[in-house]
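REQUEST ID: PR-0412
SUBMITTED BY: lab tech R.K.
PRIORITY: routine
TASK: structure prediction, single protein chain
INPUT:
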Amino acid sequence: MHPLVPALANFFVHGLGYLLIRKRMVFGVMVLVASVLGWAWSIRHPLPDTFFAGESLFLCVAVYLLMSLAFAYDAYTEAKKLTNLHF
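STATUS: complete
OUTPUT:
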């Protein structure tokens, strides 16, 4: 599997990339479950309109993108190790 596949999977759905490469399975499941629960909670409890007007939205998006990049990079490096072992 090309290392970009788990990297992109981890970027968009935290934890899924780890499951694809079968590395850090417990961590991947925990992160995936936490992400799904967070999404479900945010759908059930929408944010107030004042949240979107201030700096809070920018901060949340910046933190989410940074976490997504970190998970993607980690899955990419783990997958790269696996592909190096096969050649």
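NOTES: Residues 4-86 form one domain.
REVIEWED BY: pending
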